[in-house]
């Protein structure tokens, strides 16, 4: 304070003795200086002084100095020091909480609270102001950046929606804030975290941008730097921001999953090894609690199914589910963490078969080892356990059975009489124990848990009917349904009654067999009628009355009329005559009007603050909503058929009676005829089958024959082929022969020509022409001799060729003989074929006589064959 | 699934040009003829393989409406690739490309790879913008170009993968600073330079079975 005073003195000069200026006056003079001093130093000093006064004289500084401070931000932004003072001052005047040394004599405490909000409003009227502050985030100087972060935080706290919108539209606004998260100075980083938590509250667009700017990576980095669950409050802040980014934001949830961040969640749940006594600090409890919330946000029942399913899968794959189950079974875990872990496991397995299966296989490290489910259920039916824990176990069990037919049937199986001796305590036994215990809360829990084994599973509803209980030694065993009804009638406690009524409603709905068994208990309907007709006006008593009416409605709706005393119509009459339709419907209507009904219907997990709020179950509310309309319709409208079916023969007139008898006779006759016809049909069916068998046999013979036929045809074809080939060979040889002959002729002609030439020359020689020609002649004759020798060689060759051709001709002659032989063979084969055909035709005729349809193309067989034969002949002739 | 690299994409362009449909076709291999108006930004992801390396694409599909422009601008900075889409049957969506491009260039990092896409190529009869015009625009502004159909899936795969190839090449050339996540590129967990000695293949298979 002394420092401030000296500072003031230096700015304002030493005040005159005995004339102390008021706070307002001082502020006025300082603001004036900030605004009008020409020297930066003066403005800076005045600003520092204003900052010092801004706590004590908050109103004065805010009211008079706002414009001057904004002016500083705008005009003096180059000077970090003065900007720092201005930002600090603005922080103080817009703070949402009041300061200890604050002085405002004229104001009531309530308006003090809104001071920060009012100043915020004034500050953001000029949108650019927020932009200026955002701009200062880029200034690295600690004295600027830090107050800028804090100012934005306090502005956000006062006017969240407005500031969010302003930041969203200012260029790179969110990105600038995200950059601050990477500041190496922890104070700034931590305050940036707080700022981002405020900023992301309820604004999906900002949440997405923050996620896009790698928020998850940075947060996980900070968390691991700080030591995961053992870290300080910064870890909690990180997790709170993460929660803001994920809650109800499908896009970010799928980004979280796709970015493999689920895998990074797993190491956060690693607990200290057994025997470590460091224990659970309050901060650690908060941290783990937040981590569990993050896991739950990804698999909440309200999320889109696709996101939930894929997240559940990833959680199992990366071992997160295993780790969580480990916490369930670990010792020394604080009860609220244990409760929340149970709730988390519940949602991680809900509706996911693989995860449910895994959960069923988890064993508790007890002696003897028991399944975790059994251990959990033991806590649920244990009066001494904390109420929230018991609720979470129910939620977990219900999520385990959700869409899990195997789990449902296994539970019911544990109650059915089996040949194998069951030494261990089973889930079914535990629930029955809870059902019959003296603790009404245990009754309620057990009844609801058991009802979840029957949800949308008609097979188990029937199976459960088979369950018998040995209540007392010596007395005959009694069915579970009967026992529940008895308990309902004997019970006086609201909670037990409601639990049993919900169990019975779930059991009987859509299960005529259960309705039948229930109606066979003589006291059941009278009890329900009495309850539904009762006139007590207690809040929860009305619930019991309403559900009793609803149960009666179910008995009417799913009645197969096998219990004659309580047939559909009789029950309807009871409702009308004993209760009155209006009263009945009013009572039923009370259920959905109940405050707890809408609460339970909203979310699968019940979050009661105290045991008395535990009356209705989520699944029951769904059933009620689905069947309410059906029950009302079944009661209020009367279909015609009911009139005929419901009225007895006695009430009919004589004529009608005789008519009825006539009809009965007619029906009997028709019945008889029907029987006869059925017999005939049977006989005919038998005959038909024998005939079919015969036809089949015949068919197979036919196909056999057809095959043979084919074979023969193929053989015949090959025979024909051979002859043809022989023929072509002959033709070729003939051609060659002709060619050779022609050539020989040519050669002969040539040699004759040359002979004549030689003769001529000889004559010329003889006649003794010119002697000087002699030499030429000799040369010529030499040429001639050479030529003639050539010719002779050629002739010889030709002769050889001729000889070869003659040889070939001889071969051809023998081939022709073969051809003749083959043709003979072919004729034989054709004869055989004709025989076969005639036989085939005979068989076909026989088949036709038997009524079997014969393929038309079979008839063409003969023609085909003939055509083919003709084709072959054509080739031959060619 | 482990990956060698992770690329961040944005899809931008006028409203109704088929941005969300392109994304849906790429991630889910289906076409939704009636698509709701995108509010703000929606997220989608898929794994692809380039050069034998697994690459994860994280894609932010933005709203085309003017009202969301200030929101969508926040996504330019952190993206490694952008698909700038117009509708070949609506001339005005082509005319607005310059504005989009200016906006993108102004707010993004300078290395962002931009792929120009003329969508709805199945509606040839209603075509208003010639393919040559798209090619010319792309050439002029240094973009890659493709015509696609989110309906028939023609070229959709190629558009996303070719953009990734371009980014991948830029990484190989050392243009991108891969250690700065603000560039929209992340190195896969087992590929971080702190443990380069580990063979990527075996590491990857050990980490498998996670997400997706």
TrEMBL record, chain A:
Coiled coil: 660-757
Uso1/p115-like vesicle tethering protein C-terminal domain sequence ranges: 741-868
Domain Vesicle tethering protein Uso1/P115-like head: 352-635
Gene Ontology biological process terms in this record: endoplasmic reticulum to Golgi vesicle-mediated transport; Golgi vesicle docking; intracellular protein transport; transcytosis; vesicle fusion with Golgi apparatus
Entry-linked InterPro entries: ARM-like, ARM-type_fold, P115_Arm_rpt, Uso1_p115_C, Vesicle_P115, Vesicle_Uso1_P115_head
Record region (Disordered): 849-878
Topological type in the membrane: Peripheral membrane protein
GO cellular component terms attached to this protein's record: endoplasmic reticulum; ER to Golgi transport vesicle membrane; Golgi membrane; Golgi stack
Keywords: Coiled coil, Cytoplasm, Golgi apparatus, Membrane, Repeat
Residue spans of biased composition, Acidic residues class: 854-878
Location relative to the cell: Cytoplasm; Endomembrane system; Golgi apparatus
Protein name (record): General vesicular transport factor p115
Automatic annotation (TrEMBL), chain B:
Annotated organism of origin: Zootermopsis nevadensis
Annotated GO CC locations: Golgi apparatus
Gene3D superfamilies tied to this protein: P-loop containing nucleotide triphosphate hydrolases
Protein name: Ras-related protein Rab-2A
Domain of life of the organism encoding this protein: Eukaryota
UniProt topology in membrane: Lipid-anchor
Subcellular location: Endomembrane system; Golgi apparatus
Alphabetical list of PANTHER family matching this protein: DRAB11-RELATED
Family annotation (CDD domains): Rab2 (cd01866)
SMART domains: RAB, RAN, RAS, RHO
Region described as Disordered: 184-212
Signal sequence bounds: none
UniProt-listed GO biological process terms: protein transport; vesicle-mediated transport
Main location: membrane
Pfam families xref list: Ras
InterPro entries tied to this protein: P-loop_NTPase, Rab_GTPases_membrane_traffic, Small_GTP-bd, Small_GTPase
Molecular function (Gene Ontology), one example: GTP binding
Family note: Belongs to the small GTPase superfamily. Rab family.
Keywords: ER-Golgi transport, Golgi apparatus, GTP-binding, Lipoprotein, Membrane, Nucleotide-binding, Prenylation, Protein transport, Transport
């Amino acid at each position: 304070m002394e420092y401030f005073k000296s500072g003031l003195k230096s700015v304002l000069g030493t005040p005159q003795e005995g004339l102390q200026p008021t706070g307002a006056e001082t502020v006025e003079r300082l603001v004036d200086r900030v605004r009008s001093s020409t020297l930066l130093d003066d403005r800076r000093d005045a600003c520092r002084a204003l900052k010092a006064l801004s706590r004590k004289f908050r109103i004065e500084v805010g009211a008079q100095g706002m414009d001057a401070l904004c002016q500083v931000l705008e005009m003096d932004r180059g000077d970090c020091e003065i900007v720092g003072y201005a930002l600090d001052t603005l922080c103080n005047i817009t703070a949402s909480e009041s300061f200890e040394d604050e002085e405002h004599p004229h104001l009531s405490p309530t308006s003090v609270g809104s001071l920060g909000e009012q100043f915020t409003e004034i500050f953001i009227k000029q949108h650019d102001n927020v932009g200026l502050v955002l701009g200062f985030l880029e200034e690295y100087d600690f004295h600027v950046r830090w107050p800028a972060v804090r100012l934005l935080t306090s502005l956000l706290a006062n006017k969240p929606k407005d500031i969010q919108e302003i930041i969203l539209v200012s260029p790179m606004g969110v990105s600038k804030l995200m950059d601050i998260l990477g500041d190496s100075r922890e104070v700034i980083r931590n305050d940036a975290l707080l700022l981002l938590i405020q900023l992301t509250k309820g604004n999906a667009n900002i949440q997405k941008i923050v996620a896009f700017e790698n928020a998850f990576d940075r947060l996980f980095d900070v968390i691991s730097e700080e030591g995961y669950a053992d870290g300080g409050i910064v870890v909690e802040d990180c997790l709170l921001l993460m929660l803001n980014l994920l809650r109800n934001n499908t896009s970010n949830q799928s980004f979280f999953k796709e970015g493999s961040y689920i895998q990074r969640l797993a190491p956060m749940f690693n607990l200290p090894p057994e025997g470590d006594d460091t224990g659970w600090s309050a901060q650690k409890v908060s941290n783990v609690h937040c981590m569990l919330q993050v896991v739950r946000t990804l698999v909440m029942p309200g999320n889109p199914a696709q996101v939930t399913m894929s997240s559940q899968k990833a959680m199992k794959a990366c071992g997160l589910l295993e780790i969580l189950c480990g916490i369930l079974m670990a010792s020394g875990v604080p009860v609220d963490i244990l409760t929340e872990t149970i709730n988390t496991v519940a949602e991680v397995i809900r509706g996911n078969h693989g995860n449910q299966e895994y959960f069923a296989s988890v064993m508790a490290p007890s002696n003897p080892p028991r399944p975790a489910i059994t251990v959990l259920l033991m806590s649920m039916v244990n009066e001494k356990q904390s109420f929230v824990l018991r609720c979470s176990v129910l939620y977990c069990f219900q999520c385990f059975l959700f869409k899990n037919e195997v789990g449902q049937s296994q539970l019911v199986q544990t109650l059915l009489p089996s040949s194998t001796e069951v030494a261990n305590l089973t889930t079914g036994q535990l629930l029955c124990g809870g059902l019959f215990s003296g603790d009404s809360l245990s009754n309620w829990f057990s009844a609801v848990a058991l009802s979840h084994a029957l949800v949308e599973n008609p097979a188990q509803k029937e199976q459960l009917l088979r369950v018998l209980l040995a209540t007392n030694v010596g007395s005959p065993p009694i069915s579970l349904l009967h026992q529940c009804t008895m308990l309902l009638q004997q019970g006086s406690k609201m909670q037990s009654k409601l639990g049993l009524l919900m169990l019975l409603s779930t059991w009987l709905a859509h299960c005529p067999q259960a309705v039948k068994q229930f109606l066979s208990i003589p006291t059941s309907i009278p009890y329900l009628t009495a309850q539904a007709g009762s006139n007590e006006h207690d809040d929860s008593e009305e619930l019991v009355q309403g559900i009793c009416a609803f149960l009666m409605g179910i008995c009417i709706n799913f009645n197969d009329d096998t219990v004659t005393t309580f047939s559909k119509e009789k029950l309807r009459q009871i409702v009308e005559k004993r209760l009155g339709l209006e009263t009945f419907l009013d009572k039923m209507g009370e259920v959905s009007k109940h405050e707890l009904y809408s609460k339970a219907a909203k979310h699968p997990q019940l979050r009661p603050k105290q045991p008395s709020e535990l009356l209705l179950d989520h699944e029951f509310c769904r059933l009620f909503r689905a069947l309410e309309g059906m029950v009302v319709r079944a009661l209020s409208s009367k279909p015609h058929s009911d009139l005929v079916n419901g009225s007895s023969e006695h009430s009919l007139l004589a004529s009608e009676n005789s008519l009825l008898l006539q009809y009965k006779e007619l029906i009997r006759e028709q019945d008889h005829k029907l029987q006869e016809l059925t017999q005939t049909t049977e006989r005919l069916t038998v005959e038909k089958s024998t005939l079919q068998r015969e036809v089949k046999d015949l068919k197979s013979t036919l196909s056999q024959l057809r095959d043979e036929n084919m074979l023969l045809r193929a053989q015949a074809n090959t025979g024909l082929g051979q002859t043809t080939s022989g023929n072509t060979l002959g033709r070729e040889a003939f051609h060659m022969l002709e060619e050779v002959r022609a050539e020989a002729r040519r050669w002969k002609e040539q040699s004759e020509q040359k002979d004549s030439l030689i003769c001529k020359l000889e004559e010329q020689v003889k006649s003794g022409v010119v002697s000087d020609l002699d030499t030429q002649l000799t040369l010529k004759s030499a040429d001639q001799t050479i030529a003639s020798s050539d010719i002779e060689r050629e002739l010889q060759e030709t002769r050889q060729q001729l000889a070869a051709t003659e040889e070939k001709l001889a071969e051809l002659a023998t081939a022709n003989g073969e051809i003749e032989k083959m043709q003979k063979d072919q004729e034989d084969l054709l004869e055989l074929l004709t025989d076969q055909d005639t036989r085939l035709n005979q068989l076909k005729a026989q088949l036709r006589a038997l009524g079997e349809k014969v393929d038309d193309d079979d008839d063409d067989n003969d023609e085909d064959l003939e055509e083919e034969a003709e084709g072959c002949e054509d080739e031959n002739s060619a | 699934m482990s990956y060698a690299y992770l690329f961040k994409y944005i899809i931008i362009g006028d409203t109704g040009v088929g941005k969300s449909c392109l994304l849906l076709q790429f991630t889910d291999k289906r076409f939704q003829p009636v698509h709701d108006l995108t509010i703000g930004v929606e997220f989608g992801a898929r794994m692809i393989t380039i050069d034998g390396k697994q690459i994860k694409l994280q894609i932010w599909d933005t709203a085309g409406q003017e009202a969301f422009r200030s929101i969508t601008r926040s996504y330019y900075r952190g993206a490694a690739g952008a698909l700038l889409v117009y509708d070949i049957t609506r001339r005005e969506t082509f005319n607005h490309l310059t504005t989009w491009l200016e906006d993108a260039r102004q707010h993004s990092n300078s290395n962002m790879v931009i792929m120009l896409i003329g969508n709805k190529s199945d509606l040839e009869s209603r075509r208003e913008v010639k393919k040559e015009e798209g090619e010319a625009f792309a050439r002029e502004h240094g973009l890659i170009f493709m015509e696609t159909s989110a309906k028939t899936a023609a070229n959709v795969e190629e558009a996303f993968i070719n953009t990734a190839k371009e980014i991948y090449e830029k990484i190989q050339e050392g243009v991108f600073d891969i250690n700065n996540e603000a560039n929209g590129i992340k190195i896969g967990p087992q590929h971080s330079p702190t443990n380069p000695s580990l063979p990527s293949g075996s590491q990857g298979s050990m980490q498998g079975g996670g997400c997706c």
